[in-house]
# Entry
Amino acid sequence: MKNTKLIISLLCLGVTSSLQASNPSPYAGPDFVATQESIEEGSDPSKGTVYFGKAGNRVEFDSPMGKTIAGADYSKGKCWFASNGEKIYVEGRIDKKTGDCDANLSMGPAGNEVVVGGLMSSQPCEGYSTKKKLGNKELAGRATEQWGCRDNQAGEAIHSYDSKLKLVISEETRYSREILTNIKFKKINPDLFASPKGFKRVNKTQFMQAMMKGTMR
# Structure
């Protein structure tokens, strides 16, 4: 079950958090590489590598089926999710209004649910009905603003916002915690954000079926 949950969690993460363009405008902060640490209730802790820049973003996670990669290419308006082990990927488009990956990839909230921003959002508490600044705190060696977020449907969260990166670098909810650590500033090659070469493009159903089969091997 944990393997199956991990697949779904990674796909949700990719299209609802890491793959968002933060907003319809280009990312305004400096390029960086970081470690993403995630703890979700009922799942083993996981770590990944984040590449974030003005041209797009990319998150790589190790999973029981091999490396899984989520990417967003702002210049082409595309987002994608790939399995390095299966050599396949599924692709969608970035919504110009919201900056989020479209429903072609989304395993996340249904249309009648509130969509809120999380880790790597461009503003704290995006989409929440209320927010309140709680103070300042040093986190992962970074000076951050602490924000309390609340929504009747989405629930509550605490966001740590880095004003230099112009991103939320930590989110804590009742059931999960995600944080960026080991943040290092460096120029990112835009080729990292393009759809993977040499991989077969499939639809979302085919992608999930292939990943599920991988857990049985």
